[in-house]
Amino acid sequence: MNAVITGASKGIGKAIAERLAQEGFNVAICARNADTLAAARADIQAKNPNVTVLAEIVDMGEEAQVLAFAAKIKNTFSTVDILVNNAGIFIPGAIHQEEAGLLEKLMAVNVYSAYHLTRALLPVMLPQKNGHIFNMCSTASYKAYPNGGSYSITKYALLGFSKNLREEMQPYNIRVTAVSPGPTLTASWDGFEAAPDRMMPPEDIANVIWSAWSLARQTVIEEIVLRPMLGDI
């Protein structure tokens, strides 16, 4: 079994890759930073020395690099069973104050990357009549908030992409799940003053994804929303 997880050098993506490797999946991961990617690859491999870990330096905001990553995946793995579109960046700001071009930048990474990679890998997944696509949305996909700005716009868009894809994939028996975590203890929250136990551990998100995958083939969880016990921050 083979899985693809984007933005997997740390945080939620790495936790998912580690869990899937532990469960016996070969995994393909990507990130922009070579050092953190190499460290993640070693940690993931340590979870299961018997699986293949493909790690590629990719800027998911660049379509050409996304498509090159897809080509490398298809050359390495004969099938793709799980695709986790996790890559994304968080930059807060009010729409009327944020810098010009921020929406385009965030759309490229948070939405277009999932669109292009999914389209590139579907020719491998469709003939299988099996598989699962997870799109990492956010509680910001459901509720607008001050200073959410372009980030929240992109997360609403990614949820819309997930809903559309879910309808299209039904005849092919490919499950599509939108996963929307609230505050999770990842690098995105570096510098924010909050107790660690006020946020969710990324391993919880990985466990939820594994649970969704483990259901009967005729069952799909369309949307998952997770929040800390005390709510959003």
Order of strands, widest sheet:
3-2-1-4-5-6-7
The CATH architecture can be given as: 3-Layer(aba) Sandwich
Order of helices and strands: EHEHEHEHEHEHE
| Protein structure class | alpha/beta
What's the number of helices? 6
Mean pLDDT level? 93
- Outline: globular
For the termini, the CA-CA separation is 37 Å
How would you sum up the major sheet? 7 strands, parallel
Rg: 17 Å
Task: Find the CATH superfamily.
Answer: NAD(P)-binding Rossmann-like Domain
| Number of structurally distinct domains | 1
Instruction: Indicate the CATH class.
Output: Alpha Beta
Unreliably modeled segments: none
Strands, count: 7
User: Strand fraction band?
Assistant: 15-25%
Query: Might you state the CATH topology name?
Result: Rossmann fold
Helix-residue proportion: 40-55%
